[in-house]
Protein: Glycosyl transferase family 2
Amino acid sequence: LVSILVPTYNGERFLKAALRSALEQSHRNVEVLVGDDGSTDRTPEVLAAVAAADDRVRVLRFDPNIGPLENPRRLLAEARGEYVKFLMHDDVLGTDCVRDLVRGMQQHPEATMAFSHRVLIDEQGKPVPDHEFPKLAGRPGLLDGRQLGDHVLLNCTNVIGEPTTVLFRRADVSPDDLWTVDGRTVDVLNDVQLWLRLLAEGPAFYTPRTLSRFRFHGGQNSHNPRYVGRGERDWSRLVDWGARHGFLAGEGQERRAQARALLEAAARLHQLIDTPDHGAALEAAYLSTAALVELTGPTSITRTTGLPERAHSSVVRDRFAQELDVWTRQYPVALAAPALDPAEVDATVQAFRELLAAGAARQAVVAIPPADLDRAVPLLEKALAAGPDIDLELVPAEDPATLLPDPWLAVTPHGRWWHHGRALATWTFHLHTGLR
Structure:
């Protein structure tokens, strides 16, 4: 038995075609569960007529409505089939869709999902001109789950397809796990979230036959600016989740994926900047930037929680207190040239403690004019005695900016520019407070 799940809301325009395609499957052993989410058009009448004509159709009406994420979750909980296929109310299945995908799963029991090539159609059901989804293989067979997931995440592109495209085993998916990562809802890329969960457990069966048709029309959320900005935020989160669940394990892959997510978020932000809906795209750009700061830092940050929680934690925010090029490498030397003021020397030594602990540099050096060395020594000794011990080298230099070859890290109070831009990066701190 295959459960075809059809969540709908005010779907009268396209719903008949969708249901006809489900009931005319060459694989006859199907149940069609339709969740009517409180429709206010003629959808209830359409469903009543179809259910009366075919006892394989069962309608669940939710009134008041429960929303586009809870509707399919309720349908999945009600599904009795060994296999499940979602069918969006504006999409259409090819006659052999269920048959071919079930056969693929039966022939390859290690596969966790099955999907096919699909075609984009317009409101009249005709293929959209000059558009073709790429075929992922030339013949039916298995695609490695990790490699396919990596491809999705590295390109921030759903090459698998929409919910209508995929079939999976009911036993492999809990309704409680639908549409969430790290305990938070995935707002837009719900399907990608599910595909990644399945691909993390095994390969996918794929056929290049065109077995479903995805309808593109003006009533879809993909045209809604509130919706598209949140989609970029989803990519930042999914890349992070994927990397913590076995995807993007190759050298530099996670950084490249987050850089791609950042690029997409920035482009969307530019598109939406004059609207009140640009906030989600701005947050997406921040999340991917925070992830890159984590990944490029000289010391790793423990990643036991989701990206939004980490990105807004004090650990990551502290890194944003410095110029971000501080974190792109571990510098051989951090160099300071403090004025011989006790408060500034104390703050400089504390800054060295912090940057060494963070792994920003391997060696700490203080440059003092030769004539001032005798005055500097007791100030430095007092500052070192006031906290955890660190190795600190004192060197005489009239012009500390010319002391070291690249790359080196300047350590200086805010507003001080003694290195004249010759340092590759600058670690700054506030005087007196010790705050960065």
About this structure: The two ends are 63 Å apart (CA to CA). The mean pLDDT is 95.
